[in-house]
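Quick board copy: two proteins, each given as sequence then tokens.
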Amino acid sequence: MARLPEFSLIVFSFLLHFVWEFWQAPTYAGMIDLNHWDGIKLCSSATFGDVGFALVAFWITSAAARTRHWFEAPKAWQTLVFLGVGIALTVGFEYYYTNISQRWTYSDLMPLVPPFGTGLSPLLQWAFIPVAVLWFMRRQVPADRRD
């Protein structure tokens, strides 16, 4: 199982997104007022969603590249598809949860990005973390399979 690219994707995505979720907590209304355990549960839930986004982005990119091993020597377009899918999912879900279901709201600390009023922090999250995840995944590939 550890040889499946999805395994590395899940592990690295979880670890990196989990840390980010805590760092950005002050940019969401009420997060800093939660008790410790409730904060952990909420950040864990958000992290599982982020891992789901990463898997969807990975599978869509894999389908377009016609290989699940595209991350071993990614072409620019593959990285852009991977990032683009994650960002599109983020914008869509952030819009839904902040404007339609109102499951969460941003605090005054969150800069908003037009046209949908998406928070800057989740957008930066999906610009930087997936690149780091791909970097870590590539390092898990045996040396004889690289380039």
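And the next:
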Amino acid sequence: MNYRILTFFLLILSLTACKKEHKSKQKAEVNDLQMIKKRGELVVLTLYSSTSYFIYRGQEMGFQYEVSQQFAKSLGLKIKVKVAKNIPELVKKLKNGEGDMIAYSLPFTKAMKDSLTYCGLEVITHQVIVQRDDSKIEPLTDVTQLLGKDVYVKPGKYYDRLVNLDKELGGGIKIHKDDNDSITMEDLIDQVSEGKIHYTVCDNDLARLNATYYSNIDISLAVSFDQRSSWAVRKDCPFLAKAANEWYKKSINSSDYIASTKRYFETRKIMVHSPILSIQTGKISRYDKLFKKYAKMIDWDWRLLASLAYNESNFDPRAVSWAGAKGLMQLMPATARAMGMPSGHEEDPEESVKAAVKYIQSINKSLCMIPNKNERQNFILAAYNAGVGHIYDAMALADKYGKKKFVWYNNVEHYILLKSNEEFFTDPVCRNGYFRGIETYNFVRDINSRYKVYKKKIKH
């Protein structure tokens, strides 16, 4: 009798367990990909950086962003981005259900693997020496050649790796830890390019991206082992993980994926410029009449507008930037449409100048709080390059740290540089995240410098 009761009891337990397991699977499926598709939106979590996600000229960009957008599109979904401050917060937000997927190169670790499911886009990274590609200097081809060399690094994983490498080699590398908050990783790479320092260390993906800005750097020497990283989802999202894995296998050789890879890691970002067309005849370019006509609408010297065009396109109306900006004045497609440029007229010089001047008028209104007209011109140039949002952030930082928020040179320009530094772009006063500020810093200075030359050599 007791045996029969025990058997009956075990059978009931077994059926209950099966039923719970079945319900659990049904719940996972409902809460997983089906629920996301029903919602019509994939919420991705990421971090601000030059290789993942950033805002450029008012548009969302970044390699991880573009590729995750391609994945969402394959599922018939729109994408919504939520940004965390760091990796721990990224993981916390995912576990709390604030997003569906981490679209960031999340390093493979045992702790992460136990709590998350790695899936989708997979990247192999390692750290490299960034050195100047100079025919006068023999390049380093082996880590043992670092002995006796001065290497400048930022605190954290780059410094730690170099210290460990120094121990492995028995000592001798002259390691300089640059913990100055005003110096970013991009600054160190820039210093290598200019020959101010000889060596620094960074991840190979960051090095590859910066090699598109600096043609004279060598990033071929690895100083660490390969590190796997990929996207990730919660453990209760097996269908989403499966879809991401299947998509990645199919799409790695697709034209869209290849185009995104080239855009960020291969396409040259710096345009080669030509000299003044004819000093003797007083011509800067073939488009001087357009600059003279439309500069009056914004009360600018036409030579300043010409200097802006030179910097943007080298006076080439067919120019297309790495980011997709087009035409003589290099307006982003969305901006051009908003300024009334007809579709298909991007290469029309007059349409480009006319739309650019309307855009400058719009920026001027956004920066009307700057009382000095000449000073405001500097801010307008900066916003033309970066987008108004990043300029607002730099102004807020300048104000917070005791600088003049309505003065560009040596004040706000200093903080646009720091927008590539995590400590600053995650500051509560910043609303637009990471930005490669050195580009805008040089942009304003280059245009004004060229404008001075134009004023000196070309009659008004």
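Board note added afterward: The longest strand covers residues 116-125.
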